[in-house]
Each structure stands twice: as C-alpha cells, then as structure tokens.
Amino acid sequence: MKSSDDNRIKNLRLELAAERRRADRAAREVARLSGEALALRAEIKTLKELPPHLRGLDPVQRLSRDLREAAVTLTDTEARYLTDTYYMMQENRKRAKNQERALGSAETPEPHEVLTWVGEQSEVLEKQIQRALDAYTEAHMMGEWLRGVFGIGPTLAAGLLANIDIKRARTSGQIWAFAGLAADGQKPWLANELRPWNQSLRTLCWKIGDSFVKFSGDERCFYGHIYRERKEYEVRRNDSGGNKHRAKQRLERDRKRGRESKEAGYHKEGKLSPGHIDLQARRYAVKFFLAHLHDEWWRRATGTEPVEPFPMEFLGHAHKIEPPQAAQAPRRRGRGRPPKMAAE
Questions:
Q1: Using an 8 Å Cβ cutoff, are 145 and 161 in contact?
Q2: pTM tops 0.85
Q3: Residue 107: phi, psi to the nearest 5?
C-alpha cells in the first residue's frame, strides 16, 4: 500500500511539473504576441510621423510565423552566424545613433531623418534575429535550463549552444580554455600561431559578465551575487597584500618593455588596480556559470555524471556550489543535438 501511495504521489508531482512547464510556455507565447503587437503599433506610428519625403521607404519585413518555426532547424553554424550578425548590427546602430546626436547638436544641424530611419530599421531587424535565435534555443536540450538563468537572454544562450561541443569537453576546464578563461592554465597566443581559443565564445563570455554585473543588485540574479561576493573577497585579499607577487611580476614586465603601465602606481604598492580586481570577479562568476552549464549539459547529452572538476576556491573555502533551483529544468533529452565546436 505504501509503495502504491508513493507512486501516486510521484506521478502527481510529475504531472504538476508538466503543467507548470506548459503554463510557462503559454505565458511566454502571450508575452511574445503582446510584444509583437506593441512593436507593430509603434512601427505604424513611426511611419505616420515620417516626413513626406521618407514615406516611400519600405520598412524592414518582420519575421513571419513560418520563418520563426523554421528557425528551429537552424544549424549551429547558421546560429553562430546570426549571433555574430546580431552584435555587429547592434554596434553599427549605436554608431549611427551617436552620429545622429552629433549632427543634431552641431551649430548648423544637418538633416538626419534618414539616419533616424536607418537606426529604427536596424533595431527592428535585430529583434527579428533575436526571435529566430529564441526559436533555435527552444528546440535545444539546454534551452529551457538557460531560460531559467537570470541575465542570459536568447542571443547569449544561442551563442553558447552554437559554439560549444559538450562531447568534446569532459570537464568545465576545457570550456574555460576554449573561451580563453583558463587563467594560469591558458595556452598563450604565440607569434605566427593560430589563436588557441574561440574569440566569438570569449566575446560572449565578456558580455555575460557584463550582464551579471548589470543585474548583480537583483536578488534573482544568482551569478550576479557570485560576482559581488567574489569582488568583496578579492578587494580584501588585495588590500592585505595577497597580490604582491603578481604586482611584482607586472612591474618586471613593464621594466622589460621599457615603459610603465597605467596601473604601475598600484603595482608599486604591491596591489592590483581596482579595474583588474573587478575583471577577476567577473571572470570568476562567468566560470561558475559555465561550470554549472557544463555539468547539466553533460548529464543530458551523455546520460552519465560529469567528471568532478578540481575544487574552485570560493571566498577562501573549497566547496562545490550548486546552481540555483530556478535554473534547474528536468533532466531529459530534448530535440536538439549537442552542437559542434566552432572553428576559428
């Protein structure tokens, strides 16, 4: 009788979890449709407000439902291309906005309606690419898990899934090295040799670190809290002389180069600069996130437990920190397959 009750409770819990996932998917769909409606209304308003000489310009075509559904079948190479394109377009749009502001603030303002129009159309296209990448991540076995990580959006998630081959990374340390984050264990980039890390993945990790810092004041951002706690620890360690050896190494490097760096004043005091300390804390939070991503992805892709990584020292203590409950989705295989490692 007890065994029967236990099975009934287990089945009810599974059904409840399935209902919650369905409700989450429905809520995301409602939010997506609401966002599309708002964007469409804004586009109509923009077109009405355009000067007469610009109304003949065709707006960017939005991603249709069929194309969004087709985005599920994007290959990893195509997803990498879209991710890189998204960020290149974002930078170009920012430059256009800066140029627009500069022209508008000059003593003799130049007409810049076209620049405004180009910036708005670029933003629309960015959002359509983001929708396609969102569909790509939905079909991946780790898509749901990544959606539970506060600070990771669809573009960052797609970039990670498309650049990492989990079956070629038995430990999280191999992902760190591939992203150029392995610190003392990182293979140096020597002259006349290929870069020993994936620059696209390294750039993504930089953006992930920025996101964790940006949301570090939000209680929902688990890895933002990791960043803040690590930074407090690094500041204390720096003030107590824990970086004397590294500061001495940098002074020796400056001597060999024949010029002092901007941080030489800190190094002469046996310390690292505040900027250096902040970067250390950022990398630490990102590496924690990648370690959690690796462990969960490895379980789902191989059906086995990941190799235990060497202990990560956290706030002076060596112990494993589990990922937040919100980031743990049911361990099951998805429709996606582990993507191949991107070539340089």
A1: no
A2: no
A3: -65, -35
- Paired tokens of 236: 């204390």
List the structure tokens of 283.
């990398």
Angle in degrees, CA 134, 175, 286, rounded to 5: 70
Q: Residue 111: what are its φ and ψ, rounded to 5°?
A: -60, 130
Ranges in the chain, pLDDT < 50: 311, 314-315, 317, 326-344
In which domain, by residue range, is 282 found? 166-327
Q: Among 28, 49, 70, identify where a domain stops.
A: 49
Distance, in Å, from the CA atom of 288 to the CA atom of 341, rounded to the nearest integer, reads 20
Give the count of domains, the chain: 2
Q: 67: which residues sit within 8 A by CB, 6+ positions away?
A: 132
Minimal CA–CA distance to 113: which of 187, 167, 168, 47? 47
- The token duo for 292 is 């959690």
For the stretch 147-206, pLDDT in tens is: 889 999 999 999 999 999 998 998 888 899 899 887 766 677 767 777 778 899 999 999
